[in-house]
């Protein structure tokens, strides 16, 4: 009989070729290693001061520490935890807790009050605000985030940063996403997600408040300010502003340059405005000075010069936007500026305000008058669309100057307009745009699909 052990010995003596790992495994390991490296680096107050004081034209890299990873990332945004009353019945809950993010769509929490909106493309967007039932939210905070994938047709709840509403130096009130993975919640604190909002981590800012943040290309830009405003007026009484930037995938925050570091007018009275285009960014700072630079991180920003207009930037609105000068960009070189005065005249029910509109064809070097917008209403926000329409959100509604026309018109609102008008307007394309009521209590995001001439509300609910 043949010896069966001979076959086994022969098989064990053969060369074994290991199976290759799935495609992309080594790249995934490298990305995770780099991300862990970024999150382990920290900055002290002393090193931050040295960077700000360094007189160099190319900014030094500052690795601001990522703090407090969200331990409740599986809980949908702002969800209320199920509560059993003393009588034994089931209390109303805004959502069930601990929904698996990979397989389940969480409901939108009840009583959602969207305070900020961001879109990538024309269909996918996020809102952040307060929601749920106070005292019965999934965490100690009721800050909530909801997402739409069909331009406001439907909304779902997603995890939110562990932070409350703005209260002096703490809390968040605004949101921006660059793509489906990388997003930031800010105002005044700063939180980041690199997985589409499934988890959030707090980014240390060395005691500074983030009053503005925008994204473009593969980078994020933010204004870090030294402020003493209290309560929801977190961007009030700011005495110094510095423009920072970071790559989207990392936390390598650094001042953009010496010219945009420590901006001040010598008094706690003015705000700043940040606008980005595909190639060039603009920062309207205290003292009516405009700064500009590339958005790819290759060079520092420089001063363009003082505004050649009757504008004063003015103090900050509650969200950090200036009250006297509203800046927008039609493209990389053509800018729009609304110089607005204090409200004056009118009845107690109808506010009025002078709004002089200027345009610059050369990136702010010179300005040309475009006329005046309607005086009815106090302007909160200006948007310039790629089709070169100009749109103003006011406490009375939305005013539109269509491309190629000289006459303003009031946009048509489908349904009753929100009390207090609109605190934010923005255009994602020449035809499509989004707006938010000045009072978040309405619970709606408004959409236009005809260049801003008509708007319809989308309630941020689960149905």
Walk me through what this model shows.
This protein is mainly beta and 463 residues long. Helix content is 7%, strand content 34%. The protein has a domain at 326-463: Methylamine Dehydrogenase, Chain H, CATH 2.130.10. The chain has three helices and 30 strands. The strands form seven sheets. The chain has a five-stranded antiparallel beta sheet. A five-stranded mixed beta sheet has the order 26-30-29-28-27, with no helix packed on it. The longest helix has 16 residues, at 25-40. The radius of gyration is 25 Å and the shape is globular. The model is unreliable at 1-18, 33-63, 71-75 and 77-103 (pLDDT under 50).
- Report the β-strand fraction as a percent range: 25-35%
Percent in helix: under 10%
Per DSSP, the total helix count is 3
Classification by helices and strands: mainly beta
Please name the CATH topology of the domain at 326-463. Answer: Methylamine Dehydrogenase, Chain H
Major sheet summary line: 5 strands, antiparallel
CATH classification, class level of the domain at 326-463: Mainly Beta
Keywords:
463 residues, single chain, Methylamine Dehydrogenase, Chain H, five-stranded mixed beta sheet, mainly beta, 30 strands, globular
Task: Note the topology.
Layout: H1 4-12, H2 25-40, H3 45-53, E1 66-67, E2 113-120, E3 124-130, E4 143-148, E5 156-158, E6 174-177, E7 183-186, E8 190-193, E9 201-203, E10 209-216, E11 219-227, E12 238-247, E13 254-255, E14 273-276, E15 280-285, E16 289-294, E17 302-306, E18 325-329, E19 335-340, E20 355-360, E21 368-373, E22 379-384, E23 390-394, E24 397-401, E25 409-410, E26 412-413, E27 422-427, E28 433-437, E29 444-448, E30 454-459
